[in-house]
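Our consortium's second objective concerns turning raw sequence data into structural hypotheses that experimental partners can test. To show how far this objective has progressed, the report includes one record in full. It was chosen at random from the queue rather than selected for favorable results. The single chain below, 253 residues long, was entered without modification.
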Amino acid sequence: MKFSTKYTVRWHDTDANRILRPSALLMYMQETANHQLRASDMDLDRLRDERGLGFLLSRISVCVYHRLYAYDEIEVQTWIVEGKGLSFNRCFRVLRGEEIVAEAFSTWGLMDLFGKRLVRQENFQYPFGGDDPISLSLPVRFRLPALSEMEPVGERTIVYSDLDYNCHMNNTHYPDMLCDFTPNILSRCVAGFSLSYLQEAAHGKKLSVYRAQSGDEFLFRTVDEEGTVCLEAKLITRPLTDLKREYPAGETV
């Protein structure tokens, strides 16, 4: 069963080129998932406070087919799809009228915060049904070169403005952070990204950022002070000179 919420793109969620920032796109998607849970009397705060459960994003792949601008009227759809074992899967679709603007496939874990262990699918029941999965050209699993083959490009400390209720950097902040370390980003736009969250980054932690590049594709790793890899990511960009070109649903980005 698909659930949808309508939004007006906020001016403050757009970048220097007046295009919706990738972190804001991810926020609209996840806010819609939160609304679906809340509409079923299972919002995130109640899950945590009353049942000691919290969803943790493991992997997400997002394909962006068209650019969004301030005050665009959009509809964001989300639905759960069949998973197995410890994996809870969820899809997203963003529409501007009848036009598919972006799609995403994500995999989540459900953490028992009291027992400090992941919950299996068969031990948790959603109060709503699911739907069929979508297939994207940008997979949630990808290979990165060895860390020694990647270039160190800077550091990033986790601060107050990054934090969510778990006192870790909210997963929606990562795409914009990666753009901060993408060369010539003001002359480019984001056409897709795939993120693999391996370890949460807590308040005060300093992350070292490593990057490799192949054409319009940028690969990233972030590593904390203990040497633990927190994030692996792929970011697909396009030159802004392609301003009139759009990327129809299903095209390989």
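The partners drew two points from this record. Helices lie at 22-39, 44-51, 174-180. The CA atoms of residues 219 and 234 lie 5 Å apart. Both points have been shared with the crystallography group to help prioritize constructs.
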